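Record now logged for everyone:
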Amino acid sequence: MLLHTRNSFIVCVSLLFCLILAPKAEAVTDGINDSFTPWQGAEWGIRDVGWLYTPTVSYDLEKIETKYGSDPGNSASPTITLQFYDALPSQGGQLLVSDDFIRTTNTFSGITFSPILLSAGHTYFVGFHGVFNEPVNVTDDPQSEKLPTFYFDTDGSASYSIEANAGNSQGVDFPFRPILLFNGPRVNETPEPGILAFVVGVGMAFITVFRSTSRRYIKRRSERQLWPTLFSSALLALSCLSFIGLSVTSTADEISQLRTVGLRPTDFTTTFNFAQFDPSLGTLQSIAINLMGTSIADTTVTSVSSPGIYTFSDAASIDLQRPNGTVLADLLFSHSVSGNLGRTDDPPLPFSFRNTAPANPGGAPATTGPLVFTSGTDLALFTGNGSLPLPLTVQGLSGVTGPGAVDATITTYVASSATLTYTYVPSGTASTPEPGTLGLLVGASITAGSLFRQRRKYRRHVGVNDSTLQAYPTDVDSVVRTAWGS
């Protein structure tokens, strides 16, 4: 009985190793200028302000914080409303969470909420409502990160409908340097090796309990001795198989970059400059590009030669190219609207209206979705220590059809963004054992030692040798039937 108790204890110790070494959920702390000091003594002269945010990894967002500078003395209330959207509100973004918080000076403050799953490479929007005469939550440090755009409004509607572009800031760039901090646990899309180790351990513990309750049904000493031998062998085999399978796993990581261009009259060509993948980080596996775009057409109709139904159409094409001119990703989207013009009961002329394309629900921008490139040529093109310029060509198309001639002015504006994501295996990943692998290895070693010690102790106790042991039953089926009293 002492031998069986010791064996069960050793199995429990092995299970404890698996449980302790099972990796916990990895916390994600994603900051923008979070290590910089906020601008002191400055205040917002606008009602609402916000910025785009694109996470580089998928995780469950649970907290958003920011840091404010000193109060210049005009603040009416230290209460700020923080809002988080799944896209830019003016482009149909849906509000995911909104809550008030009390701002503090030179320390982080913000809101905590139920987890929101964020997808790597997707662009979200974080806005701050009711900031007029409040201290700014930006830094004026020139070494800080400068975002390409920020959004605001002056009427307090929380629409964030006015876009400011860093390229047209005329030296006023502090609003493009927000201080933001995002926190939450990282999403594990596949079971961690430590979790698998824990499952194996739970299974082995169950077998241990079953074996202990079944021992009283085993009549012969040889059969009692066979049960721990079978159990120990099974645990050893499972541990070794798990070690072999899990020790070769490697975890891919991602790096994402976002480049945008605000609304501009078509036609135009610009360049998105992306940092190449640094080969010292690891081995580049693939490149994903998500191209997005939207257009606005402002139309003013001065006169029509004949009354009737006229259709006004607008479209835009966006091409993102490699440096050699070949197309990486392209978009073509359009929208049209029809109406009666020229009759006495129709809208009086001149008549102005706006088309937004594409005509998606909520005005969401058109997107190519992630386009993945894995060819050796593209991997080599995007690998290096420099910057890779990718030309972006935008063209707008518009037209009018109807029963007569139309005197109209149509101006088309297009905005676009591109998210580039590198997926790679970090250097040295494959050679670093997972915590769960280490747990299983320790468990296998303890079990193997237990099996060897048990065999030697049993020989000394009953005074047998190998030839005598061969006389004991080795038919597993007969042992199981005897154990169940059959």
The domain at 27-185 is CATH 2.60.120 (Jelly Rolls). Confidence is low (pLDDT under 50) at residues 466-486.
